[in-house]
Amino acid sequence: MAALLVLRAVALITVYGATSTVGSCPADISIYRTSSVTGGDDDDGAGDGLDLVKMNGLWYEQAYIDLAQVGESCQVFNNTYLGEASEDLGDGSDGVGDVDGVDGVDGVDGHVMSSTSGIDQKFHVKYGPIPYTLPLHYDTTDQTGVFQRYAQYPGGKFLKFPSVVVDAVLSDDGTEYTSLSEYLCYMIGPIEYVEIRIATRSVSVTNDELEEMEDVLRGVGIQYDNLTYVDHNGCDPWP
Fold first, then answer.
1. From CA 157, how far away is CA 136, in angstroms rounded?
2. pLDDT over threshold 80, residue 50
3. Distance of CA 59 to the CA centre of its chain
4. Closest to 9 in 3D by CA, of 50, 1, 77, 164
5. From its phi and psi, is residue 106 left (phi > 0), alpha (psi between -120 and 50) or beta?
6. What is the C-alpha to C-alpha distance for residues 50 and 37, in angstroms, rounded to an integer?
7. Between 114 and 123, whose confidence is greater?
8. Which span out of 26-30, 61-65, 101-105, 222-226 was modeled with the highest average pLDDT?
9. pTM (2 decimals)?
10. Is the pLDDT of residue 24 over 80?
11. CA torsion 56→210→16→68, rounded to 10°?
């Protein structure tokens, strides 16, 4: 495990050295949200927008830009929405106070403590034959779909990355999202660190489906070169 952490640290250092030195991260990353995230209110993201509960569960990463993922394969992640920092989620009887079927993450009538709000994500990959899970956390902000993301390791909270859900496609029955696209851009001095992640509920997608999701990214003004695509053939089930 320690060796894998070193590998990821080296990859991040490589990112900082290899990305463009011309700063182009927007001052407000929320400009890249579609109406599926903002709920049609592009000014402040208020109203019916992204439903974080519907982001719960297993996702398959299909395409990405992220040099920290160099050497990784079979990328999947599992989201658990923990609630808002000061929100009383009730007793779970209506399903709102439940996280993965458990009534109340602190065991007391669905009340979520502020230290356990936002989204926990377990990002599971393989380095060659070696499985590895990176615990990530997304702090919510006052803008729908905009987060502060960090790794859940000692000191991880000192390096938070602004991240935005660009687009989320709802299932036909409206119970969950079936695809997500995420964009992250962070400036460290003149150095730009960028991530793009496209994920779906299904293990595989067609080229046309991927092209449609990429068109959405470009349509909101996100500029990038080439994505790396994930092949899930031969990958083990989620651990």
1. 10
2. yes
3. 10
4. 1
5. alpha
6. 5
7. 123
8. 61-65
9. 0.78
10. no
11. 60
